[in-house]
Amino acid sequence: MVNRSLTYLTGLLLGLMPLLASAENIDMLMNRLFPQDELTYIGFDSVERTDIPTTSGVDRKYLIVDFRSNRDESRETQVARVHEICMTLLGNLDLIRDLTQQGYDMVSVAFDRHYQYDCIP
Questions:
Q1: Which superkingdom does the taxonomy of this entry point to (predicted)?
Q2: Whole-number Å distance between alpha carbons of 52 and 56
Q3: Is residue 51 helix, strand or coil?
C-alpha cells in the first residue's frame, strides 16, 4: 500500500515538473525583459475551457500573462506594449514548444481585468 502511494506521488510530481519549469521560464523571462519601472509583471494564469469539445478546433486552453503599467498610458501605448510582450513570448521557441506540449492553444496579455489581448503569430 505504501509502495503504491509512493509511486502515485512520484508520478504526480514528475507530471508537474514541466508545468513548473515553464512557469519558472515565463516568470524569469518576463521579469528580465520588462523593467519594473515601466511595466510590472504580475504573473500568469492558465485557463482551460472544458465546455468546448477537443474536436471543435476552437482554442480550449490558454495562458494569460498579466502586467500592470506604472504610468497612465494611452490605449495606443498599451497596444504597442502588447505587441512587444507577444513578440517576446512568441519568439522564445523553447517556451512555445513547452506550452504546446502542455496543450496550450493561445497566449494572451492582460493589463487589467477588463482588457485581454490575444497574441497572434
A1: Bacteria
A2: 7
A3: coil
